[in-house]
Amino acid sequence: MDHVAHLYEALSKVDGFIYPNEIELSWSILIVLYPYITGLVAGAFILASLNRVFNVKALKPTYHLSLLTALAFLLIATMPLINHLGHPGRFYELMITPNPTSAMAIFGFVYVWYLMVVLLLEIWFDYRKDLVIWSNEKKGIMKWVYKILTLGVMDISPKALKWDEKLGYIITVIGIPSAFLLHGYVGFIFGSVKANPWWSSVMMPVIFLFSAMVSGIALVMFVYMVVNYLRKQKIDMLCLDTIAKYLFYVIILDFTLEALDQIHRIYEAEESFEIISLLVSGKLNFTLIIMQVFIGMIIPLLALGFMQFYKPKENVRKFIYFIISLLVLIGIFFMRWNVVIGGQLFSKSFYGFTHFKLQLIGSEGFLMGLVWLIVPFLILAGLLWLLPPWKKSHTEESSN
Amino acid sequence: MAIINNKSPEKDRRKFIKTAGFITGGIVLTSALKPFKIMVFAAKEPEGEGPWYGIGIDIEKCIGCGNCASSCKQENDVPEEPFYFRSWVEKYTIMENEEVIVQAPNGGIDGFDQDVENEDIMKSFFVPKMCNHCHKSPCVQVCPVGATFDSPDGVVLVDQEYCIGCRYCIQACPYGCRYIHPEKKVVDKCTLCYHRIVKGLPPACMDVCPTGARIFGDLRDKKGDLHKFIKKHNCHVLKSHLNTGSKLYYNGLNQEVR
């Protein structure tokens, strides 16, 4: 009886009519985190590639930081997914017997491709020379750790390093469409559900992609400021201003796409329009209008837009950037929330709403969600300790 | 009159007739190779032998007793809490002011209350619901491991030993026919009482229906009861615009029903 107590509470708060199986939300906070985290990965990677492929030199100080941030989040990206399965022990079936018509089944392969072929390889090529140097310099267990990480490739002749550079560059070039694929694809998982009019939209993958870039850029901005604060290092303001500029552009694009999607819905006003407008004005009022649009988009957009014309003093700018990065991160979290949770609050009969209250504890509770948000930062701290970008040798600068 | 074109009109006409002839001939030829068939039913049965099951529900016959829903729970070990149903009954009340009231308290198992005045009601009816055993099921399409599948006789089933419990199929089903079994932690749904129909018995819900509002049968059997039912009545499927190939045919389905 205990395990269904919250369902009885929800049942008493059902608004209108819902199908009897719809009282419990199938996807909760963990599935909100899944697109959120993969989005951060894709966004951070795209910021890194701006430096390497598109040669935006001002972004150099954040290049390795972006890659390591992407890796830290990618390593746990599947954990909320596996954690939420009814049978987490059967997750490997996804990889060994995938159903080719299922959007979700293909995710495993996209993920592995992105992790193994793109991110790990790129970081490895980038750090290989340093790994060799560190394995010679360090003593004790760390010597062996670095030695293992070199995978036995100890050649650091100029010719070998040139190859590292070349291959790393090729991987970044492959990485950009891969990052697009990774996150556009997550959008497709939702956008292809024709039973759900809140999700079913051809715009979904594109919106997910651009919101991913927004969140990933904001995350790197945030991490860069925090890391420099902790290391008591001066922040490269040109770099920060450049990140802010790109953040501004991408928010404009994201805002436009999302607005277009909503305007299209409102103008077409199909069968589901009434229930969706009730959803937006009712159950999602706070999380969508206030958190996602106002806090997460309008305020950052106005602040960043203003700063394109008028640049306050460095300290003020730093403070504003810090606040904006946080607001954007919160806003995009709520964007995922509104998609995932919002799409399940109304009945597919379009005659009513179920009730959802996030539990504090339990495998689908708030604390569990918090754990999966904190763990990547711990992994990032570990990665920065193991592969400090500021200790890399600068003789062979990546100039591509 | 100035001659703009030195081609004779005669030549132009001949060319036109020639081209038109080719196009028409081409179309006729292609249609002969692959004739265009108008779909009579929502789901056309695939080529093959053996039964291909579908369901018919006569809304006018349903009295809302809820026997179908409760017998389904007993037969199939469906948890008794009011959040898990393989089969249930909805009551639609359309008011004179065109307001639509839909209810399904405990899936209709405990019966229905009427809390509006008789004279305010335009019409009222019951709609039994269950898995539509779609031919082009979105749930089968999205299952990442193929644990949900179409049986050769047209029944959508779940291999519960194989289901990972991701719930994507629950999201994909437009009809709300699936739930996660609270103890087994895998998805559960109507099997059309597969364990019974393979023995030649009707599904439990159809067996207990006192008015015979539910029919099940072989859609390939053109002399069977289900075929006769679809032929005799003006039948509709739910949410036909989603093109799920539903094989659950309702007689007298109001457009308010979703």
Outline the structure in words.
The complex is a heterodimer of chains A (400) and B (258). Chain A is mostly helical. Chain A is built from 15 helices and two strands. Chain A has helices at 5-12, 29-52, 63-76, 79-84, 93-96, 103-137, 141-149, 158-191, 204-230, 237-268, 273-281, 285-309, 314-340, 342-345, 366-386; strands spanning 15-16, 352-353. A two-stranded antiparallel ribbon of chain A has the order 1-2. The termini of chain A are far apart. Residues 395-400 of chain A have low confidence and may be disordered. In chain B, the strands form four sheets. In chain B, strands 9-1-11-10 form a four-stranded mixed beta sheet, covered by helices on one side. In chain B, strands 3-2-4 form a three-stranded antiparallel beta sheet, covered by helices on one side. The model of chain B has no long low-confidence stretch (mean pLDDT 91). The termini of chain B are far apart. Chain B is of the alpha+beta class. In chain B, 24% of the residues lie in helices and 19% in strands. The interface between A and B is large, with 46 and 48 residues.
The tally of strands of chain B reads 11
What structural class is derived from the secondary structure elements of chain A? mainly alpha
| Arrangement of strands in the largest sheet of chain A | 1-2
Order of H and E elements of chain B: HEHEEEHEEHEEHHEHEE
Radius of gyration of chain A: 22 Å
Strand content of chain A: under 5%
Q: Bin the helical content of chain B.
A: 10-25%
Biggest interface, which chains?
A: A-B, 46 and 48 residues
Shape label of chain A: globular
User: How would you classify the quaternary structure?
Assistant: heterodimer
